[in-house]
Design goal:
This protein is an alpha+beta fold and 463 residues long. The protein has two domains: 113 residues, Mac-2 Binding Protein; 230 residues, Thrombin, subunit H, CATH 2.40.10. Helices cover 14% and strands 28% of the residues. The strands form six sheets. The protein has a six-stranded antiparallel β-barrel with strand order 17-18-19-22-21-20.
Length: 463
């Protein structure tokens, strides 16, 4: 018996033994046939949306790259500026190196040339108020007199620039301040800088601040009231000195400390050998010996920026081999350098050595004259010095109408009296001639050169 494995397989199948005959097709079974046709050239593929997105992506990428390059450029410029400006957060030394602001005036030398400790102590005003720069407050502060001693005064004068043994005295004055003081620590240490032995203090007993006189200066022995050029009384100007070469007067000068003389650079620039010079101080008698005694010179220092043509920086210093003997003679006394805060004078006095009236060039007499100071604008006028006057110069003219001393004594002092103290205002660098009587005399501005003067004094303290 044979079983049909596909019992009801639908109309498409017939039983075994029967003739295979396809069933008739219904209308629904008839379907159209697909005829494949090949196109001659396929149309290009167009994707407008995809291309638009791609263009936007390219533009965005380019913009981002440009901004990134600009950012890198700015960062590079800032980095180069920071690296080239080594003192963005500090103070610059003389050689271009840098130290932190906290290292300035801390009593420890950090700059190779010591610039960080060079201008930390100063005297202010006609009262000689001691001021010290405080790194903590970033400002100048007076020193409270409570606990202050003469030993600390001497140490402070050394930092200003004065030599050992020239110290005069410490004093005190009322100075009520809201910003505070510096106060000395107990127990002075001679081995440590005075800058390391002071602390900030908001109060000071009796508001009494230290005044400091590093040398006995500014006292005039004899007074003259003459206004025009005339012979000065003996001892009237005790700081006046004569600078001589081979027994001949070369230039005038002014003593500013027992070891130091200020004069003009053009006086010494061509002859810087100290052995060639002799300094005479102390006018004894105009009819007899003019000077007593003579002092040898150990160092001649002309300003390194002196210009023969323009007379810029026309200032020089001489250091004596032996200090002026102030105790032995009242006719020898330094004049004071102008302290910070001393206002510019309106009037002053000039002194110079002239040959005697009989024309004997071997004999000299000291001449004095009262002058008034002229503004730089007026001195630079076309009728005067025609723009040749710079900030390091002063102009002065005699108060007596028609007077003229015809200054030939370069380096001579221009001084002024303020609050009972005589201050050195200028040194004579060039003057009017007989054919230029309307032109004022020109002097070096000593106030302008203060830092240079003190720097040289500190540098050569122990020479």
């Amino acid at each position: 018996m044979i079983h049909n494995l596909f019992p009801d397989s639908g109309p498409g199948f017939i039983r075994e033994g029967q003739r295979m005959k396809p069933p008739p097709l219904s209308r629904s079974d008839v379907k159209p046939q697909f005829v494949h046709r090949v196109a001659l050239k396929p149309p290009p593929e167009i994707r407008p949306k995809c291309r638009s997105v791609k263009q936007r992506c390219v533009r965005t990428t380019l913009t981002a790259v440009i901004y990134l390059l600009l950012l890198l450029l700015v960062a590079g410029v800032l980095l180069a500026y920071y690296l080239s400006s080594s003192c963005v957060h500090g103070m610059r030394c003389a050689d271009g190196s840098c130290v932190w602001r906290s290292q300035w005036c801390d009593g420890v030398t950090d700059c190779p040339a010591g610039r960080d400790e060079a201008h930390c102590v100063r005297l202010h005003g006609s009262g000689f108020l001691l001021q010290i720069y405080s790194t903590q407050s970033g400002a100048w502060r007076p020193v409270c007199s409570h606990g202050w001693t003469e030993r600390q005064g001497r140490a402070s004068c050394l930092l200003v620039g004065y030599s050992r043994g020239t110290y005069f005295k410490s004093g005190q004055q009322t100075s009520a301040l809201d910003d505070g003081y510096l106060m000395a620590k107990s127990g002075f240490d001679p081995e440590a800088s005075i800058l390391q032995q002071l602390v900030l203090s908001n109060t000071c007993p009796n508001n009494s601040a230290v005044t400091l006189r590093c040398t006995d200066c500014g006292r005039r022995v004899n007074s003259s009231r003459a206004s025009g050029g005339q012979a000065a009384p003996p001892g009237a100007w005790p700081w006046q000195v004569s600078l001589q070469v081979s027994g001949s007067h070369r230039c005038g000068g002014a003593a500013i400390a027992p070891y130091w003389i200020v004069t003009a650079a053009h006086c010494v620039a061509r002859d810087p050998n100290p052995d060639d010079w002799v300094v005479y101080a102390g006018v004894v008698d105009p009819l007899g010996p003019l000077f007593n005694p003579a002092y040898r010179v150990s160092r001649v220092i002309a300003h390194e920026g002196f210009d023969w043509l323009t007379r810029r920086n026309d200032v020089a210093l001489m250091k004596l081999s032996e200090h002026l003997d102030l105790a032995a003679s009242s006719k020898i006394r330094p004049v004071c350098l102008p302290n910070v805060g001393v206002s510019a004078p309106q009037r002053g006095w000039v002194t110079l050595f002239d040959p005697t009236p009989d024309g004997d060039s071997g004999s000299l007499h000291l001449t004095e004259a009262r002058v008034y100071l002229i503004s730089s604008a007026d001195c630079n006028d076309s009728l005067a010095h025609e723009g040749r006057i710079s900030r390091d110069m002063l102009c002065a003219a005699e108060t007596q109408a028609g007077a003229s001393t015809f200054h030939t004594d370069s380096g001579g002092p221009l001084v002024s009296l303020k609050d009972g103290v005589w201050w050195l205002v200028g040194d004579s660098i060039w003057g009017g001639r007989c054919t230029e009587q309307n032109k004022p005399e020109v002097y070096g501005n000593v106030t302008y050169f203060l830092d240079w003067i003190y720097h040289q004094m500190r540098k050569h303290q122990d020479d």
